[in-house]
Specification:
heterodimer, A: about 220 residues, MetI-like fold, 9 helices, B: about 290 residues, D-Maltodextrin-Binding Protein, domain 2, 2 domains, 13 strands, globular
Chain lengths: ~220, ~290
């Protein structure tokens, strides 16, 4: 293969790459924040005794888990402004789409974690006269949270990688920024190398941190 | 218990689908009153919502500043100025451009868009402003190819971008070749298949082939430079069923040609050996 590399291009467009990295970090940050809050709320509702509430939440979770994220993003991008007359930017659409997608996975994980809290803990709390809401807030959620953290971290890293799908609706994350450089310079291999470097710089430490968390004694449930 | 949960979930899914269906039923694109032309909406709102697709030199976007320029951007700016309206641009791409028009997100798509039959079944085009054909990228040292017929030899591997004009050509005429169809927004991908040796030939629009070969002249050759085949009229794209908007844009483009504005744009953006063909004018001056 004969290819004249022009890696100077990475330096020339460093600000474009950097801006792409910032956009993807912002997008992932917002997604994690809203996806986790909404997902935790839905996860608790999944254990509700009310069949209607549970049915609605189960449907929400199943629909969003089943719908490919790419399809969801493109659909939201056109559906919200065209049929509901909601004018939102591509970035907000992506943040919304990624958040509701993440919330469906978080809901399931939270439900599993709450289910996994030993009944003896709840019985002990009840014998002390604590109400159901107090047991949930003081005993169940903190205990479940402990078990959740490693799984959630892995989910967040996946979500960070998935944020690249926002490029399909022209959010200026690394891939879309990269495409704009390619179309300007016709130097695809150099640009893809730059994009890979950005993701590696962020993903490698995050994965290392996630592995550390998994092994941490704090997150192993004591029964 | 499980059955009850499934029935409730099923019911909610049905209600959701019904509600979404109802919201789609009988809707009209955003901002446009029922039966109203986009032209009326533009006159009322004093703004054209335009979708752009990067395609130098027709639509150029500086990656550093994100500033737009190019042949069609300048052309639209001049039309908007004469109309006394603004243009609000938002980015779209080859795959989403029809949805952007049909949902009313944009009033016009601005790029070098080819007037193809499959596209014309869904959208409407203004009159051709210029013409672009297809060309091919081969490895520099490859001496097997001189003419179009050389691509019909069996055993060849041809790389194309999904849905692009090169793909349409290959499906129709290169029946004995192995096709690599790439689903990508990056127009250089089929050409990279040639450089990396996975394909013998990459087909693409002559403009992209020309610019790619110019940037990678040590590795590849633009086989049909200056003599593209399968030529398409290239222009603006709008929604179907809006004769007033179409009529207005056609008239505006005609005026741009007759006033000499498109000649100025050619001088500004067409490189000496660039791969687009100019449209002939329907009139000549005495001195020509």
């Amino acid at each position: 293969m004969h290819y004249n590399w022009d890696l100077g291009l990475l330096w020339e467009y460093r600000r474009v790459f950097l801006h792409g990295a910032i956009v993807t970090l912002e997008l992932t940050g917002i997604t994690i924040l809203f996806g986790t809050i909404l997902g935790t709320f839905l996860g608790v509702l999944l254990l509700s005794r009310n069949k209607i509430i549970r049915g609605i939440v189960v449907t929400y979770v199943e629909l969003l888990r089943g719908l490919p994220l790419l399809v969801l993003l493109v659909w939201l991008y056109y559906f919200l402004p065209a049929f509901l007359n909601i004018k939102i930017s591509a970035f907000t659409t992506a943040a919304f789409g990624l958040s509701i997608n993440l919330s469906s996975f978080v809901a399931d994980v939270v439900r599993g974690a709450i289910d996994g809290v030993p009944t003896s803990y709840k019985d002990a709390a009840r014998s002390l006269g604590m109400s159901s809401k107090l047991i949930l807030r003081r005993i169940v959620l903190p205990e479940a949270f402990r078990a959740l953290i490693p799984t959630l971290t892995a989910l967040y890293i996946t979500m960070f990688k998935m944020s690249t799908l926002a490029s399909v609706i022209s959010v200026w994350e690394p891939l879309h920024s990269g495409n704009s450089i390619i179309i300007h310079t016709y130097r695809a291999l150099e640009v893809y190398t730059g994009i890979a470097i950005i993701y590696l710089i962020i993903i490698v430490p995050a994965t290392y941190f996630s592995k550390k968390l998994e092994k941490s004694k704090y997150f192993i449930r004591r029964v | 218990m499980l059955n009850a949960r499934r029935s409730i979930a099923g019911l909610v899914v049905l209600i959701t689908i019904a509600l979404l269906g109802a919201s789609f039923w009988g809707c009209v694109p955003k901002g446009v009153e029922r039966g109203e032309s986009v032209l009326e909406k533009v006159k009322r709102e004093k703004v054209i919502h335009a979708g752009y697709i990067k395609y130098p030199p027709f639509v150029i976007q500086d990656p550093k500043t994100r500033e737009l320029s190019g042949y069609f951007i300048d052309l639209m700016a001049q039309i908007a100025e004469l109309m006394g309206v603004e243009i609000e641009y938002e980015e779209t791409n080859w795959g989403r451009m029809i949805a952007a028009l049909e949902t009313g997100k944009v009033d016009v798509v601005v790029s070098g868009i080819f007037r193809t039959i499959p596209r014309a079944m869904q959208v409407t085009f203004t009159k051709p402003v210029l013409y672009v054909g297809i060309s091919a990228i081969i490895r520099k040292e490859d001496t097997r190819f001189k003419e179009l017929e050389d691509f019909e030899k069996p055993g060849l591997t041809v790389a194309v971008t999904d849905g692009e004009v090169g793909h349409e050509y290959a499906k129709r005429y290169l029946l004995d070749t192995k096709l690599i169809v790439l689903e990508t927004e990056d127009i250089t991908r089929p050409m990279l298949e040639v450089i990396t040796g996975r394909a013998d030939v990459a087909l693409g629009d002559a403009m992209s082939c020309y610019r790619f070969a110019k940037e990678h002249k040590e590795s590849v050759t633009d086989l049909f430079a200056g003599r593209p085949f399968y030529v398409f009229g290239t222009t603006l794209m709008i929604r179907r069923g809006d004769p007033e908007w179409l009529d207005f844009l056609n008239l505006a483009l005609e005026f741009m040609e007759n006033s000499g504005f498109t000649d100025k744009l050619e001088k500004k953006y067409k490189e000496a050996d660039a791969a687009w063909l100019s449209a002939a004018k329907p009139w000549r001056t005495e001195t020509e």
